[in-house]
Amino acid sequence: MESDRGGVLVALADGAVLLDIAGPAQVFQWAGRHVRFASPDGRPVRTDVGVPLGVDGAIADFVGCVDTLVVPGYAVGKDLSPDLVRSVRTAAVGARRVVSVCTGAFVLAEAGLLEGRRATTHWMACAELAQRYPAVDVDEDAIYVRDGPVVTSAGVTAGIDLALALVEDDEGPDLARSLAKHLVVFLHRPGGQSQFSVRTGIGAPRSSGLRHVVDAVAADPAAEYNLAAMARLAAVSERHLTRLFRRELGMTPARYVERVRVEAAQHLLEAYDDGVAPIARRCGFGSEETMRRTFLKVLGTTPTDYRARFRASSR
Questions:
Q1: What is the pLDDT of residues 137-185, one digit of tens each?
Q2: CA angle in degrees (0–180, nearest 5) for 200-204-207
Q3: DSSP assignment letter at 194
Q4: Which residues make beta-bridge pairs with 226?
Q5: What span, in angstroms and rounded, lies between the C-alpha atoms of 185 and 122?
Q6: N or C: which end of the chain has fewer CB within 10 A?
Q7: pTM of the model
Q8: Residues annotated as catalytic (active site), given as ranges
């Protein structure tokens, strides 16, 4: 097939998430790219919501003649199509860059394209991606991650962020900014995906002592939780408690307390009219300034900006 300079190929199989396909495709098409769709066998596919999609041919037909290969996501827990994985692995060889949207990262990982690379995916699937593919350096907070010619994005609408970033790389900020305005989205979304769930990666502890500490912090995040106090709650030494936190939760005791307090503050900011300062005290930050600095560190945004974006509609 004749080379398509700057062309975009979306590699599809049955069950692909419709918005993962439509968002980036719209951005690239409005940016003047030739967007084509292909499946492993060249047959039409049906998306996760049942919408049938025609394709322009088999993925193998486009090997060596596509600029950007895009792989949308699929429901986590379902078996990946072996034909799709093989086709993506082959098509990636001749592409200038390979892109995954949301859980499309699992297809890239299964194809061996993420080995030794940084990558991201939907926050709900980051832990599973890291567990299934230990050679992948999973970034749980990033909206999108570039690692050489491979670019991965967080969940669903983050595919639009990724596509805009690639348009900005290729064509400059003016076109990307114009497209963002047309789409009514941020050109650069504030904060990372941690603002949607700070509990990513926090599992249920196996140790009864650690469970006691975790439950106590969740029940009263404003209490004093230095290492000595938490060790007394768990009835273990400070050193052993630190080991338990790292082994079972993948973080330090202080980091866990910080994340629980952030999540408590997020809930109050979303649901209630209380001022930022009272919320800071109720959640254990002590002062508004401390909470502001912590939000910036953990979520990449301030409490005020967080409330403006996520506050429930007035009742």
A1: 998 878 889 999 999 998 878 899 899 999 988 999 889 888 988 887 7
A2: 140
A3: G
A4: none
A5: 19
A6: C
A7: 0.65
A8: 102
